[in-house]
UniProtKB/TrEMBL annotation:
Any GO molecular function: DNA binding
Keywords from the named record: DNA-binding
Species the sequence originates in: Sinorhizobium fredii (strain NBRC 101917 / NGR234)
Pfam families in UniProt: Glycolipid_bind (PF06475)
Top-level taxon of the source organism: Bacteria
SUPFAM superfamilies per UniProt: PA1994-like
InterPro entries assigned: Glycolipid-bd_prot_put (IPR009467)
Name assigned to this protein: DNA-binding response regulator
Length: 196
């Protein structure tokens, strides 16, 4: 349904406050079915507090997260690893069983992490609603938690509904042929896209 990934750079801006995200996503080598790396820099503010964040997410060829690193400009850092099947550990090898079952991650402040379950599950309208446990990382505390989220395909390869499990937030997300969010109502707007 989505095209094979090539090196792509995209920018989004938040709809509230000032900010910008600059993300590059690419296959790690030229082979078909290569692992994927996304690297991004964000500046912005949340709840009136400014932040500067850099993150790197590595996925296998099936879009299952295998590791991620988030760093702030004030030297906070979080680095976690996954086996791709929902088992997490610290970079030092300490198991994190409270995140068992979380295959995808959700990083506050970026629409990119919506792409992970959309691409991984390859949802169609016939799939129904996928109910997921996400490893969620807020940018204010960097303390990961488990967050229930639902994804439903409204138009194959083009439009997906995101809904918080507690129904406190819902958004219909149009995506491009890479599965990257084009518009995130009330939160983000895409500014540009460049594919190599």
């Amino acid at each position: 349904m989505f095209r094979a990934l090539s090196s792509t750079t995209v920018r989004w801006r938040p709809l509230e406050g000032e900010g910008l995200e600059h993300l590059t996503i690419r296959p790690l080598d030229a082979s078909v079915g290569a692992a994927i790396r996304a690297e991004s820099v964000l500046i912005g503010e949340r709840g009136g507090a400014p932040y500067g964040v850099r993150y790197r997410i590595d996925c296998d060829a099936g879009w299952r997260v295998t590791s991620f690193v988030i760093e702030t400009t004030d030297a906070r850092r979080l680095h976690l690893l996954s086996d791709g099947t929902g088992h997490w550990r610290t970079a030092e090898g300490v198991a994190l069983p409270r995140f068992d079952g979380c295959i995808d991650i959700d990083l506050a402040g970026t629409p990119f992490t919506n792409t992970l379950p959309i691409r991984r599950m390859d949802l169609t309208r016939a799939s129904g609603t996928a109910k997921l446990k996400m490893l969620y990382v807020p940018f204010d505390s960097f303390e990961p938690t488990v967050d229930g989220q639902h994804y439903t395909c409204l138009e194959d390869g083009k439009l997906y509904r995101y809904q918080a499990e507690d129904r406190s937030f819902t958004a219909d997300l149009p995506v491009d042929e890479d599965g990257l969010v084009i518009d995130y109502p009330t939160l983000f707007q895409r500014l540009s896209l460049e594919t190599n």
